[in-house]
Amino acid sequence: xxxxxxxxxxxxxxxxxxxxxxxxxxxxxxxxxxxxxxxxxxxxxxxxxxxxxxxxxxxxxxxxxxxxxxxxxxxxxxxxxxxxxxxxxxxxxxxxxxxxxxxxxxxxxxxxxxxxxxxxxxxxxxxxxxxxxxxxxxxxxxxxxxxxxxxxxxxxxxxxxxxxxxxxxxxxxxxxxxxxxxxxxxxxxxxxxxxxxxxxxxxxxxxxxxxxxxxxxxxxxxxxxxxxxxxxxxxxx
Length: 237
Hints:
There is one protein chain. The chain contains ten helices and nine strands. By secondary structure, the chain is of the alpha/beta class. Helix 1 links the parallel strand 1 (6-10) and strand 2. The chain is globular.
């Protein structure tokens, strides 16, 4: 058993949607969450820029004696996690990626995948489509430039403006599911649902939480505390 903290990071507040699910599943764990708003949005950074940013955060979290690191960001996961695992072989990493497999497994026929430009361009996202898409399924990959930034800023009018610019052209296309491929996007669920009232909105947060629990169990690292854990927030603004 181990009472060290679970480390988490994202380009700001987006990963709090992952943290919420984790605390439901693992309430007795302690968490340290690094909100990197200063470098938001990750999806518009070059590969080398993003790796520099992410390795600095990983080094910081390791210095705080975390037992596992949750990359609560689709962009950082799809573009960096493989290299991070090679760079830090003794650290357990759990990533977040667009829940394309979930949409395909549930046999939705017309799926819209919303994600940052970086996530949409990543090899991993295209691999997920190739691995999971069935012949009778349509998957549209939509790079949502500016949306994570608008959500991070908290300007509701700007969020709506960006959403309409991105989504208005799809409202008549009989979309039956929307994959929220950025941890910021669940913060705008209500707005998206207004445009697509019949579509199922899918994110990967519960799946991430279950994977974290599996990893902690398999490495005998689950907390043995009987009291609710605490969250320490680190803001890089």
